[in-house]
């Protein structure tokens, strides 16, 4: 158990706050000290608010002295991805085209819930321009690097959040996931990332990729993510697609294990190639589920055409996004995003409607699998982190974005809850295991992730 306050779990922090052995102010200072030492090499943050964070920490400290803390995350340091509004901070979305000199007087729902719960908001984490791709770099903020190897990408688009999490630069981190943007960087950096059921966490304003976009937690432990989901899942009437608030405590049942569960394991999806080191690490992880008492069935999984259906949704969103800018402004945008938007303009309205219909068909097909399985496992990604500064791997059968992420985006389309859990290493880089639950059963994903974490704890890099 760590004694470094910047690396403590949420439960450890708040327990120490309550017994007065630790202060939110001391923890906030420790987090900023880690940022000072480490972020110059990794570039996880695009905005920091030390003054505001210190004031929030002092207010939290006073509440604990009075025995009047606001929630189980009161005083816990948290970050906000720079696609999400945070009152008083610019939300530039990784783009030089968004003006910083405008009113920033509104919180996104997830930001608001953390602030209301007394979390200490320390800053905003980096994202590629408008969150369009699975790595984190932009003309505005530069390259965000992987702490396990600074020459490798951290993934994206919630890359800054993942790096901040794995390095102890905050305990709770807000990510978004439209095609894997929580799970990709979680896998590449070796943290836990949860894409909740679609609509579980209210979102506002709507993403350009709103049809497939989710908001969720990125943390160093499953329990921290469950506690964070308790806060994030509270209702907000600004999201017309949000699920009805169920009032569930997502920490209940976390320790109940997976004994007797029926688990389906697909080594791949649609026959996509998986690097041997990744495949080996995932197989070892699956064996651990069997040792935990689950009945694992290996099966071949095919969802023909799903990549094209996802591309219709994603590329059309990119086209709508860029059409909000002048032609001159569009020429300043990431060339990859320009190309994605150009491809999206070729889809007709009828094509989009047919893709939406096909999406429903995939959802039903996956739902039927859960008549036989309690949980499904796949690799999160077929590869480990590749060279930083690239949009795609330099070699291999992984063409373009989202071609190298064949296991993540299908479950944005189907809306099922899915998480990435670190399950080992290949070539010195983390490997991710994807856990997919039945519709609306975020508890299943959390409980299975915690069972695995108990026998294979999350490791952190040593970046001095």
Describe the structure.
The protein has 464 residues and is an alpha/beta fold. It has one domain: Alpha-Beta Complex (Amidase signature (AS) enzymes), CATH 3.90.1300. It is 36% helix and 16% strand. It contains 14 helices and 15 strands. It has helices at 10-18, 24-42, 50-65, 109-116, 159-166, 183-189, 222-232, 276-291, 306-322, 327-330, 335-344, 349-369, 410-414, 442-455, and strands spanning 45-48, 77-81, 120-125, 137-138, 142-143, 145-146, 149-153, 172-177, 192-195, 214-219, 262-265, 295-298, 375-379, 418-426, 429-436. The chain has an eleven-stranded mixed β-sheet, sandwiched between helices. A hairpin with a 2-residue loop joins β6 (145-146) and β7. α9 packs across α11 (335-344) and α9 (306-322) crosses α12 (349-369). The longest helix is centred in the C-terminal third of the chain and has 21 residues, at 349-369. It is globular and about 60 Å long. It starts with 9 loop residues before the first helix and ends in a 9-residue tail after the last helix. The relative contact order is 0.13.
